[in-house]
Amino acid sequence: MASKKKIVLAYSGGLDTSVILKWLQKNYDADIVAYAADVGLGNELDGLEDKAMRTGACSVHVLDLKEEFVRDYVFRALKAGAVYEDQYLLGTSLARPVIAKHHVEIARKEGAYAVSHGATGKGNDQVRFELTFKALAPDLQIIAPWRTWDFKSRTELINFAKENGIPVPVTVEKPYSMDKNCLHISYEGGVLEDPWNEPKDDMFLTTKNLKDTPDSADEVTIGFEQGMPVSVNGTRLSPYNLLVTLNEYGGKHGIGRVDIVENRLVGIKSRGVYETPGGTILWQAHRQLETLVLDRSTMHFKQHVAIKFGEMAYNGEWFCPLKEAIDAFIDKTQEKVTGEVRLRLFKGNIITAGRRSRYSMYNPELATFEKESVYNQQDAEGFINLFGLQIKYAALRDRAAQE
Question: Is residue 116 annotated as part of the catalytic site, yes or no?
Answer without folding.
Answer: no
